[in-house]
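Folds vary. Our protein:
___
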Amino acid sequence: MQSYNRSGIVKYPTRISLHSFSTIDNFCIDNSYLNKYNIIALINSLSDHDAQLLTLQFAQQHIKDQNISYKRNINWFTVAHFLHKLSYETWASVFEGNDVNTIYNSF
């Protein structure tokens, strides 16, 4: 995909099912950064979609005294909370559809 000086950079399947695979989760970056990034797949085993980790290289000075990190806390409580919230979702439009684009938009 190339438009508006942007390119899709994920070149491997991000959704893998029993009978198909596709690259439906993609990053689009400005073409001027095409040689200044690293992207890797993160297989999380939580769904049929794999995550991606994108690292961009910028020529900026980092402030050494500030460390900011974000972590996702996955434990029995957070998984149970997620499953509880998920139980309120209706999935009929996802599972009963035949057109991949319609199913994706419904999801």
Summary: The first helix runs from residue 76 to 86. Helices lie at 76-86, 92-95, 100-106. Residues 1 and 101 are 17 Å apart (CA to CA).
